[in-house]
Design brief:
Elements lengths: L1 H21 L3 H4 L13 H8 L5 H17 L3 H9 L4 H23 L11 H30 L6 H11 L7 H15 L7 H7 L7 E6 L7 H8 L2 E6 L24 H5 L10 H7 L20 H7 L18 E6 L18 H17 L5 E5 L2 H15 L3 H7 L8 E4 L8 E7 L24 H9 L2 E9 L15 H14 L15 H12 L3 E8 L2 E8 L7 E7 L2 H4 L4 H14 L4 E4 L1 H6 L1 H18 L40 E2 L18 H15 L2 E2 H11 L7 H17 L3 E4 L2 E4 H5 L4 E2 L15 H15 L4 H11 L7 H12 L5
Parallel strand pairs: 1-2, 3-7, 4-5, 4-6, 6-7, 10-11, 12-16
Antiparallel strand pairs: 8-9, 9-10, 13-15, 14-15
Helix pairs in contact: 1-3, 1-4, 8-9, 10-11, 15-16, 18-19, 25-27, 26-27, 29-30, 29-31, 30-31
């Protein structure tokens, strides 16, 4: 026993000495001390050293176990390089992950050989082809919609369509629209399935019960009272309400919308809020818990600064704002222009009450400058009050008499005409450039603001009025104020309007909401970092993650000489690319949005960058040089009126002459009746012919003329043998031949006294008999299924129609110019038996 204990102690001593020898401390475990082979002659000294380092023995055992497990997992190469000192510990993890990735890639290539083709795949061509096909698909869908609508336009001339055609043909004395909608509303809807109407127009022109719509879309719903909208809703099967609770309510918001009830009961007092208690139809729908969805993409503002305050104040920064290549340019976005104006309160003697003439004159000069420098950009002027908007209009009218350029610019005729409005009635309008006249200000030029009165801004809903105002401009918004924003004291007002106005003016003056800086975020991947380093090595400034949350450009490249302008948007297929839900968004929409804002777009694929780095770098250099050359004259911002003639040009525009409306192409036409032309070379009589021969004739006759009456079949057989009449013997032979044909040919059927094919039974078509000789001798020979098809066609293409008109229209469609008693009775029976559509 003592011997075993002694051996165990020697082993412990040996382990301690070995740990000391190998220096298994933290540095060694980190890979900084390589293991060395211990020579046999030094074992004694090793054992001696181990005796003093027994605690390190457990660490050494753990190390050996880790080495064994790592080798068994297939990473012996990594262990060997670590032990030999060829690989540093801090690089081991990266090397191991790289080796794992390479192993997975090799396994995937073995399992899917087509992956090897990715290296030679031209992704730029593939993406361009996808975009082309996407656009073609959209155009084809539009054409298909037009085609389907064209097919649905009614072609009747009687009934409701008769009334419509009569009104179209009138030169004067037209019936009221309400009468037309009441008497021909269904056909009007067929012609114009989409109607754009105000609630008052719906009540005025659409009688209750006259028409029904599949879908009602209520836009600007925050400005529509519930009682105005409910009449529209009653005429629709589905409703979509589009609006913004942060914008203006109905203009008479403070008016009493219903009379007070004389009979207030306890039940009424405890009842839920009724529609009349609601501010707007949008409020009513939200209160009733209707499903809602926020459309977060902000499409209007081409510069994020134009909507930045509204996004922060009203939308909790949830709007997606695409970055602008000019968002660092001081000539675009939101600007504040200080004016030495004087506001004239009531009975102050400083001018017309509620106006600021100096500010109005400054705006008139700004409008004249805009007319010379940017006539293609549409312009609107908004004042805080009606009095100030009237003053601006007056000053502009005086100025245009002395300035031909200004006069030409203010003339109507542009795609988006110039306007001057006040804050109460500007909702729904938008322009490339908006000029805002605050109007309110000090009563001494250049003085401090003493009164905190800003008209409607101080009242209930003042913040919402400001939100409407803030979001009218697409490219630039200039605010004219006669005081410094610091003069506003929000504590002197009980509502949020004054505080929001101060924040807006402060931002317009200083841009303190960080809109003029890049995000400061890092790249999404090492791939993007590498691309950014290459761009910088080419002499350009590369900003990572340009934009705001929801829409960031991977790399924005600035102009070397004009750092306020972005030359290029470089997009990599990194995390943002792969996070897109649809190929349409990833490969088309993002690029189209950026290009519409003035960005020049360049994409780099990671596989191309990895496999053909030199070629992609050269391609990137070429694009950067070209972008710089194109940007030397600045980025062109296209306005809504970019087609507008130059100020120096004089061009007479003649209004197009109205063309007379014709409906000749819209008429119901039946296919011509086609008689069976059959000749039999035989000297025998028809009734003496073999039944198989007659059956063959029956089949040919029915396929050409079915459905056809039995007596008409006998006439055709008689004519085939050169006879002019069909007697009783021929009729009997024909009936036997028909019976034989029906028994032997499954496709031929007998319905009553009419023979037809199954296809003719499933889809009977009206036929025009006006141009044939030897038509039906009797009205009863007209097939009922054909008459029913004609009746349905007339009803579908004419709408509601009187019975007699219906009968005459069917007879005309079938080629009969005169409707006798027999024909009227037969057609009338088909009309009377028609199932209502």
């Amino acid at each position: 026993g003592e011997a075993l204990i002694g051996r165990a102690r020697k082993v412990d001593d040996l382990a301690a000495t070995l740990c000391d020898r190998l220096k298994l401390d933290l540095d060694m475990l980190a890979g900084e001390q390589m293991l060395k082979t211990v020579p046999l002659r030094d074992l004694a000294s090793v054992f001696e050293g181990m005796a003093d380092h027994v605690p390190a023995y457990s660490a050494w055992v753990a190390l050996q176990a880790a080495i064994r497990d790592t080798k068994s997992a297939g990473a012996s190469a990594i262990v060997g390089k670590l032990l030999s000192g060829q690989l540093l510990a801090e690089a081991a993890v990266k090397e191991f992950r790289y080796a794992c990735a390479e192993a997975r890639w090799s396994a995937a290539r073995r399992a899917y050989p087509n992956l090897d083709r990715l290296r030679d795949l031209d992704r730029h061509t593939l993406a361009a082809e996808f975009v082309r096909l996407e656009r073609d698909r959209i155009k084809e869908a539009q054409g298909l919609v037009r085609l389907k609508h064209g097919e649905r336009i009614p072609r009747g001339t009687a009934g409701e369509m008769g009334a419509i055609r009569g009104e179209i043909g009138r030169k004067k004395g037209h019936k009221p629209i309400r009468w037309l909608m009441k008497n021909a509303g269904a056909m009007v809807q067929r012609i114009k399935p989409i109607m754009l109407m105000s609630p008052i127009s719906v009540a005025q022109y659409l009688p209750a019960g006259a028409v029904k719509f599949d879908l009602l879309v209520i836009d600007e719903a925050s400005q529509i009272r519930p009682e105005d909208a409910l009449g529209c809703i009653a005429r629709a099967r589905q409703v979509v309400v589009v609006g913004d609770q942060q914008q203006l309510p109905p203009t008479s918001f403070f008016d009493r919308m219903v009379d007070d009830s004389d009979d207030d009961t306890e039940e009424d007092e405890s009842a839920a809020a009724s529609a009349s208690d609601m501010e707007s139809i949008l409020t009513l729908f939200e209160a009733r818990g209707v499903n809602k969805r926020m459309l977060s993409w902000h499409y209007r503002s081409r510069d994020p600064s134009l909507i930045r305050v509204s996004n922060a104040e009203f939308y909790e920064d949830e709007l997606v704002l695409p970055p602008s290549p000019l968002q660092l340019d001081d000539d675009y976005g939101l600007k504040l222009r200080r004016v030495a104006g004087v506001y004239a309160p009531k009975n102050s003697g400083l001018g017309r009450a509620g106006t600021n003439r100096i500010e109005a004159e400054e705006i008139a000069r700004a409008v004249a400058a805009h007319a010379r420098q940017h006539p293609d950009l549409s312009l609107g002027v908004v004042a805080f009050s009606k009095a100030q908007s009237d003053m601006i209009t007056e000053v502009l009218e005086n100025a245009r008499r002395k300035d031909n350029v200004l006069d030409r610019f203010l003339q109507p005729g542009a795609a988006e005409e110039f306007f001057v409005k006040n804050i109460e009635n500007v909702q729904g309008d938008e322009r490339d450039v908006i000029m805002i006249s605050v109007g309110y200000g000090p009563q001494v030029a250049g003085g401090r603001l003493t009164s905190m009165g800003f008209g409607p801004i101080n009242g209930e809903g003042g913040g919402r009025r400001l939100n409407v105002l803030f979001s009218r401009a697409r490219t630039r918004c200039e605010v004219f104020a006669s005081f410094d924003p610091a003069d506003i004291d929000p504590s002197r007002a009980s509502r949020d309007g004054l505080r929001i106005l101060k924040r807006f003016l402060d931002f317009a003056k200083t841009g303190i909401m960080d809109e003029k800086t890049v995000t400061g975020l890092g790249a999404d991947s090492p791939f993007e970092e590498d691309v950014a380093r290459v761009i910088q090595s080419l002499g350009f400034v590369a900003d990572l993650q340009v934009g705001t949350a929801g829409f960031r450009i991977d790399i924005g490249v600035r102009h070397p000489d004009r750092p306020a302008h972005y030359l290029l948007a470089v997009e990599c297929d990194g995390a943002a690319y792969h996070s897109a839900l649809w190929a349409r968004e990833r490969d088309r929409l993002r690029q189209e949005v950026l290009e519409s804002l003035g960005w020049r777009f360049h994409r780099i694929w990671s596989t191309d960058w990895f496999h053909r780095r030199e070629r992609e770098v050269a391609r990137l250099r070429e694009v950067l040089i070209q972008a710089q050359a194109n940007a030397n004259e600045g980025i062109v911002v296209r306005g809504a009126n970019d087609y507008r003639f130059a100020i120096s040009d004089v061009e007479e525009h003649t209004a197009p002459q109205p063309q007379e409306l014709t409906l000749d192409h819209l008429s119901i036409k039946a296919e011509p009746y086609r008689k069976a032309d059959i000749r039999v070379k035989s000297m025998i009589e028809p009734h003496e012919a073999p039944i198989s021969t007659l059956a063959l004739l029956v089949r040919q006759i029915v396929e050409a003329e079915g459905p056809i009456h039995l007596e008409e079949v006998a006439r055709r057989i008689s004519a085939a043998f050169g006879k002019t009449k069909a007697g009783s013997r021929i009729q009997s032979a024909a009936d036997q031949a028909v019976a034989y044909t029906v028994r032997t040919i499954p496709d031929i059927m007998l319905v009553g006294r009419f023979v037809l094919t199954r296809q003719q039974s499933d889809d009977p078509k009206p036929r025009d008999r006006s141009n044939i000789d030897g038509g039906p001798l009797k009205a009863e020979y007209l097939p009922p299924m054909e008459l029913e098809a004609a009746a349905k066609l007339i009803l579908r293409e004419s709408g509601g129609i009187e019975r007699d008109d219906h009968v005459r229209a069917i007879a005309k469609l079938l080629g009969y110019q005169r409707v006798g008693p027999d024909l009227s009775a037969v057609i009338g029976a088909a009309v009377d038996g028609l199932v209502p559509m």
